[in-house]
Amino acid sequence: MKPQYFVGILFATSLYWMYLLYSPFLLVITIAALLAISTSDIQGLFERLFKNKLYAAFGSSFLLAVLFFAPLGYFLATLTIKLNSLEPQVFESIELYINNIIQNPPKFLAFLKPYTVDYLEEIDINSLASNALSITGTVGAFSAGFLKNAFLVIIFYFFAQYNGSTIVEFLKRVVQMSVDETTLLSKELSSVMSVVFYSILINAMFQGALFGIAISFMGYNGLLFGIMYGFASLIPVVGGALMWLPFMMYEFATGDSANAILIALYSILVISVVADTFIKPLIIKEINTRLLKDDDARMNELVIFFAIIAGLATFGFWGMILGPAITAFFLTIMKLFEARTIECKEKTN
């Protein structure tokens, strides 16, 4: 057997066992690596500031935890606590309230009364309570799982920032690609991921702050619901409507029509129209201009938008990072094929 074949078999065997060993953490490691690529400029800034790569990695990891994971962790923990503290009497009150609305609907909904009476008889408070408790347990389990994964992402992110340059240089030596090709691949992926990450983060914080400030004047927890609105705004098409619509309906239900109309108008005009339609493109354009000096490295905003939608549909929450990364990687490989095809044609001629 030739030595290179033996080494190839050893490599394939070791790769298989490495997969078995780290398969539970592959998604977490991938997310951490992509986040490290996205924030490589922050790591570079901290390295120049602290003059120490270890301190810089600690600084960038802490910043990521504070800006990205801490708000969502706070939201999930608060939601879980609130749901677990609900008493069975709450569900009875909800049933009584629904019964009253159905029996004495507002004038503009009076035409629905013949259809709702039959449905009212089918409502079972015991099943309602059991379903609600089941949802509570599901939310609690999801929150615990997310916080665990978030902690692991921070850990792997730290190691990626601390050892990232060494790993990249090693891969450049191992992978059978030219220096120009590896540079193009890393540049394209880093550029797209930086734009996606900063655009998502800044827009979510901006819209969440607008909603949180407004809702706090109505007596609600502005921090909690601002965070919820920020993450809801990441969902294409429906976005913030998942937040302001229930608030509007609740205010109407409690008889405060003025607050309900104010929430709807403020969310639609100020956040959806002004912030999302006019200010958001300016933010993305500014990020593109500052981060990407080379026009060839830029990905069309529409492509990024559909990549985020596809990622969310396929991978869930982490899809907003995985979708653009996979798309950018594919398009870069296509560019490499194109360059090699042109090179082969030139050699042939």
Automatic annotation (TrEMBL):
It is a multi-pass membrane protein. This is AI-2E family transporter. Its main location: membrane. Belongs to the autoinducer-2 exporter (AI-2E) (TC 2.A.86) family. InterPro entries: AI-2E-like. Pfam families: AI-2E_transport (PF01594). The chain crosses the membrane at residues 20-42, 54-77, 150-171, 192-217, 223-247, 259-283, 303-331. It is found in: Membrane. GO terms for cellular component: membrane. Keywords: Membrane, Transmembrane, Transmembrane helix.
